[in-house]
Amino acid sequence: QYADISKEDLVHAYGMMLLSRQFETACNQEYMKGNIRGFMHLDNGQESIPALVADSIRKGDKKYSYYREHAHALASGVDAGAVMAELFGKIGGTCKGAGGSMHIYDKATNFQGGWALVSEQLPYAAGAARSILLDRLLHPEEHKNDDRISVVFIGEGGAQNGRMAEVLNAAAKENLPLLFIVIDNGRAINTFTGDVAKNQDVFLQGQHYGVPGVKVDGQDMVGVLQAGRAVVDYVRKSGPAILQVHTFRFNGHSPADPEHERGRKDEKKWARNAADPIKIFEDKMLASGKFTEGELKDLKAKANAICKDAVDFANKSPAPP
């Protein structure tokens, strides 16, 4: 049921991976130019997750991300120019420049912002899931076909926070339509997660509460889409679930520490060469004949044009008064 992914859907998901990578690269360049200031956290290497969001999460679903959320906003349908302008601190931004990199918010797409404090987003996402159930209860006719869900993004390090246990308990007790997307890159900021966590298999945390979970290889975009579709379908129909995506973050925690994490230089060099989800997808598709070099090139050009337009929009947008 979930194994067959059409070429049209693959094009859409691959395009989102490209847009995410090129947008983050553009952000880094603008940061170095001084156009973006303050805190900023890039998502390079983890592009299969926004691909999943673009593939399976709908506009009406409520989304709660953490501070590394640019690509999640783009995948949710937030305008790239508005996101870039927000990073620039301009009026044309999603919060008119008041939020910055860690606080993208867009009412039209139900993207409920990035949250700067670790695990802070969890209870808000649970509250959003409860509001969906209340809508169904209080307005049954209006919401009789309502299968909206609430989606929360959290790192495997942040999932060690006590809020995770509290929210898992609430989600199970009330059977909330809540999807936990755990972004597992092996690091809690710059700390090896294994140094602070007895068990890094966050997808198993729900066992005590009867919340199912699954772990998937984040370097395999097709596998992420397949697992994602199955898990999202489960949440829409049955209740809460955990999807843990194991991935590699190519950059340091932020531009302030690009290559200073202990023991990471060799790992990141390896990851960029051998664990790049974009390159892995391209190699597989070319080998199978599903895509041609020309098709991939055209999609890259399209993503590049969107990013260029986003930077141009941000540059031209006026500063706040």
3D structure, described in words:
- α8 links the parallel β7 and β8 (241-246).
- It is globular and about 50 Å long.
- The longest helix is centred in the first third of the chain and has 27 residues, at 7-33.
- It contains eleven helices and eight strands.
- The protein has helices at residues 7-33, 48-56, 70-75, 80-88, 121-138, 162-174, 193-196, 221-237, 265-274, 277-288, 293-316, and strands at residues 62-66, 111-115, 150-155, 178-184, 187-188, 191-192, 213-217, 241-246.
- Strands 2-1-3-4-8-7 form a six-stranded parallel sheet, with helices on both faces. A two-stranded antiparallel ribbon has the order 5-6.
- The mean pLDDT is 92.
- The chain has 321 residues and is α/β, with parallel strands linked by helices.
- α2 packs across α8.
Give a quick set of tags describing it.
321 residues, alpha/beta, six-stranded parallel sheet, two-stranded antiparallel ribbon, 8 strands
Question: TL;DR of this structure?
Answer:
This protein is an alpha/beta fold. The chain has eleven helices and eight strands.
Globular, elongated, flat, extended or rod-shaped: what is the shape?
Answer: globular
Distance between the termini: 54 Å
Number of helices: 11
Strand content: 5-15%
* Total strand segments: 8
Q: Percent range for helical residues?
A: 40-55%
> Low-confidence spans: pLDDT under 50, at least 5 residues?
none
Physical arrangement of strands within the biggest beta sheet: 2-1-3-4-8-7
Overall mean pLDDT = 92
